[in-house]
Amino acid sequence: MTNDDGAYRQALDFLYDRINYERMTSGTSRYPFRLTRMRELLQRLDLGHWLHGDESGPHVPLVHIAGTKGKGSTASMVAASLTAAGIKTGLYTSPHLYDLEERFRVDGELCRPADLVRLVDTVRPLDEELIAEDKGAASFFELTTALALLHFHRSGCGAVVLETGLGGRLDSTNVCRPDVTAITTIGLDHQHVLGDTLAKIAAEKAGIIKPGVPVISGVVADEPADVIEQVASNQNARLLKIDRDFSIDWKLKPDWGSNVEFHGKTSPLSASLATTLAMEGQHQSRNAATAIAITQVLRDRLSLSIDDDTIAGALANLCCEGRIQRYRLNSGVTGIVDAAHNEDSIGALCDSVRNRATGPVAIVFGTSHDKSADRMLELIAQLAMQVDLRTIQLTRFQGNPRWRPPAELMAMVPDSIVAKAAVNENAIAACEAALRTVSPDGTLVVCGSFFLAAEAAPWMRSNES
């Protein structure tokens, strides 16, 4: 079956027709996240053994990860380590860059289109039952979560890693029974749903913490860290915190990536684990520290056969598309595509550009209407004080209706870089204009949205030397 097959298109249409909450812009009450329907859907799929509080069926080791940024990379690191140890591992992440099947991976392999059709054919009649019983149509994310777990069950996975979609407490993944939970970072994003302070956002994400289940935290700011510590205490869940129970040393490699050394300071964490990271940025070293701690706690809790050399090798070989992804373009230009779309992730990207760029820099920026574009542009303006910024092309993506008009972005550009800003409604034309300003030997960065990253990456590949 190809991606153009009629049955495949019908399966995608069934799922995408359920996307509505992502187009709303304000008001928590307008986001009808619920867990009851999610639990019932899994029970009707005979997947009740995945549910928290259900001890009736065979248990598959499960890791549940939340966070403002870094949760997808961390989840990928944990899954890669488990796969490298010979454990068939399902990984559920979101969003996807190109194809929906990227959300459902088994040992790194995407769900095949034919398998997706069969999964939808199984779930669709059960969804129709819920509608007929006035229990409401399942949301897009409820459906994809059910599809993921069904795919992992049918694939015979021996472990599963789940990334939350939005928040944690009311996220559809939060019906599952975890063996380890983790919160990577807390920052300001999705405030219209999760709350307008770090403490409120932390409380939502800490909703994944379960009674007696160990939790790993990569959160360092006092306000959200205190909330997580209090929730863990209330749930009698052992908390292991970065910079207290474990830490990581980080050093840039000359070309790309970094050398890191993990230090565990409490049992069952290893005293030392050294490796390299193919993924760029100091923030990825902290994600790696969290992932190593998760894997080692899971290993100890379930007596899994995973040695430290296996973990180190998995991290050294792992790359995630759209995460400060490098391209070697013509004229010696370094292209970078990053899906960074909030203040913290743009900050991490700017740190990496500051560390790597030796020549002129051009930026192509476009984002969604519900993101804090003003703060992201302020961080880019701060970067411009330390690098030779030639242009910032303000653009939009084409494949999703959530784009913010480039003219609105222009009104937010700080005065210090407004003379270098230009509006370009076409993302590819924006990339081409930006490339001309940094050839030869400069750096071209595309950022602000997963949707923009997905449109720019094929252009980057077509211009590789």
UniProtKB/TrEMBL annotation:
The lineage of its organism: Bacteria, Pseudomonadati, Planctomycetota, Planctomycetia, Pirellulales. This is Dihydrofolate synthase/folylpolyglutamate synthase. It catalyses: (6S)-5,6,7,8-tetrahydrofolyl-(gamma-L-Glu)(n) + L-glutamate + ATP = (6S)-5,6,7,8-tetrahydrofolyl-(gamma-L-Glu)(n+1) + ADP + phosphate + H(+); 7,8-dihydropteroate + L-glutamate + ATP = 7,8-dihydrofolate + ADP + phosphate + H(+); 10-formyltetrahydrofolyl-(gamma-L-Glu)(n) + L-glutamate + ATP = 10-formyltetrahydrofolyl-(gamma-L-Glu)(n+1) + ADP + phosphate + H(+); (6R)-5,10-methylenetetrahydrofolyl-(gamma-L-Glu)(n) + L-glutamate + ATP = (6R)-5,10-methylenetetrahydrofolyl-(gamma-L-Glu)(n+1) + ADP + phosphate + H(+). One of its GO terms (biological process) is folic acid biosynthetic process. SUPFAM superfamilies: MurD-like peptide ligases, catalytic domain (SSF53623), MurD-like peptide ligases, peptide-binding domain (SSF53244). The keyword Nucleotide-binding applies. Coiled coil: none annotated. Its cofactor is Mg(2+). Belongs to the folylpolyglutamate synthase family.
